[in-house]
Design brief:
Distance between the termini: 146 Å
Largest sheet: 6 strands, antiparallel
Oligomer: single chain
């Protein structure tokens, strides 16, 4: 017999012997009852579930552990051949792998669900924040509208930021009247004008002046009155021969007090063809919001004619506090 035939016969005999031992067991086990009807159906059922869980539907954690415990308990209820033992080992390893996979899948699902839950909560919180922001903005708009209406009402009643000032029109030889002009959309109530009119002292040195004061009650000025609507006579101030006249004026009304500085300079002499050049500023006193904070003057109106000799005058704001 050739060597290859011997090797082939040896492997064949060994394989048959191994298969017979796996199926029937060793010589000492040949007389034991072998309930194949018990092991094979259970192994088929458990194996089918293992394949199903592995490929199509991963079980919840601990389900495979329970199946593993059940298989281990059933293994001791009946004798088995080696082939059954091998199949049971395969099933046990499969159940262990399935349990490991189920734990990982459960953790991944938990992390995903937590992320979704957090995103949903953040979305809801953001919606609430957006609604609150919208509500606050709407309330603020309503508040501003209410305050605007309230401010409009106060302005209508008190005069708001409307003011009036004195101006001079025409040649006026000599200077005899000043005209009252209103600035602003509201009317003014209880208007009173206090004038300090100064001019150079006759035959005096430069800088020496004399002045007179006068008080005129204007009363109410309606909102629709034209800009220039009332003249105030200056006869009491004796300005017939004056070419330089300075006015320090204090206005009082229901909406507060304001001050005007008005400087007049005659160009062309007191004869036809000449004209008055004007420089004026109007101030309001702004009081500080803190105790003992010093009040200050705020410029609200200014008008200076071209070619007015500004270098000859000084804006004596300190005089405003004397009234």
């Amino acid at each position: 017999m050739a060597f290859t035939d011997k090797v082939t016969h040896w492997f064949k005999s060994r394989s048959v012997s191994f298969g017979r031992s796996m199926w029937k067991g060793g010589p000492g086990e040949s007389q034991k009852p072998v309930p194949d009807w018990f092991h094979f159906p259970m192994q088929i059922v458990v194996g089918a579930y293992a394949v199903y869980w592995w490929h199509w539907h991963s079980p919840a954690p601990n389900i495979a552990v329970l199946a593993l415990a059940a298989v281990a308990a059933l293994m001791v209820l009946a004798d088995m051949r080696p082939i059954h033992k091998v199949l049971y080992v395969v099933i046990i390893v499969s159940l262990v792998l399935i349990e490991s996979r189920a734990i990982k899948t459960d953790r991944a699902n938990f992390a995903r669900d937590e992320a979704c839950r957090r995103n949903e909560e953040n979305r809801k919180f953001q919606n609430i924040a957006n609604e609150l922001k919208t509500s606050i903005e709407q309330n603020q708009r309503q508040f501003l509208a209410t305050m605007s209406g309230f401010k409009e009402t106060i302005g209508t009643v008190t005069g708001g930021d409307t003011f009036c000032y004195l101006d001079v029109f025409g040649e006026q030889i000599p200077l005899s009247t000043v005209s009252l002009r209103k600035m602003g959309k509201y009317g003014l109530s209880d208007v009173t004008v206090k004038l300090l009119v100064s001019h150079p002292f006759p035959n005096s040195s430069p800088g020496q002046t004399t002045g007179n004061t006068g008080i005129t009650r204007i009363g109410d000025i309606a909102a629709f009155d034209r800009p220039s609507f009332q003249d105030i006579p200056l006869a009491q101030f004796n300005l017939e021969d004056q070419e330089n006249v300075d006015f320090n004026i204090v206005f009082s009304a229901r909406n507060g007090i304001w001050h005007q500085l008005l400087y007049l300079r005659r160009v062309g002499g007191l004869k036809p063809g000449g004209r008055w050049l004007k420089a004026t500023r109007v101030f309001r006193i702004k009081y500080g919001s803190k105790p003992y904070e010093q009040a200050r003057m705020v410029l609200i109106f200014e008008r200076i004619d071209d070619k007015f000799p500004v270098q000859e005058i000084s804006w004596n704001d300190w005089l405003l506090y004397d009234h």
